[in-house]
Amino acid sequence: MLLELLGEVYIDYYPPRAYISLGLVLPLFFFYLIFQIPKSENMRWIFTLFILLLVASFLRAEAYRGFLHTKDDIRLTGYINFIQYRSNGLVIQFTNDFGDEYIIEPNRVAGFGFATEGEGVLRYVSRFHQGQWLFLRVVEKGRRLDLLRLPDNSRQWVDGTSYRYSGDPLPMFWLEGHNQFIMPVFRGGFRRSMRELLADVPEVAEKIGSRGYRYRNLPDIIKEYNQRARRASRQL
Question: What is the pTM of this model?
Fold first, then answer.
């Protein structure tokens, strides 16, 4: 089991809450009903298919153990049911430990996090940029720069239907400095803009655009930049 410390809240990983008890009990109950109904063989097959689809819908209703981080620095534990792109922005559905469900917009909280089996604990923060609130995942956190990214709509906890049909999608990666600036990182002009931004660590800046230092390598680039910046500050 995965146990991680998030601030003062311990998140203990176990498989996503998929209404497992229902997923186990319902098949037994409905298959019992199937063989109690004196219908034709065809009717039994139709009824069986309907029950299987119903059970599958329950099993898809996953939720991930996590927390909300409020703007007054309080952490509320519960379940993150999904992250969803909507025409007017991003939202999450959160279920607290009492079973109450809420739709949460980024402007209402400081962030949230949840545990996954394959990727550990994922942490998201709320950020405001040019009139729009966003939920951004913390990919790399360092001494100089933090790398953030939009929720990946290929993940099972993200409903990206609206994003896929958006005519002007947002950039995937975002950079945040410790002086509170935040900026999107565009593919177009990546080499020039990143060389200017990382100019104080020339060992990294001069490699931007070469193999291993392109847009898709941003997590590794920012990690190396922060490491070199930290070493340089220690030598001063």
Answer: 0.73
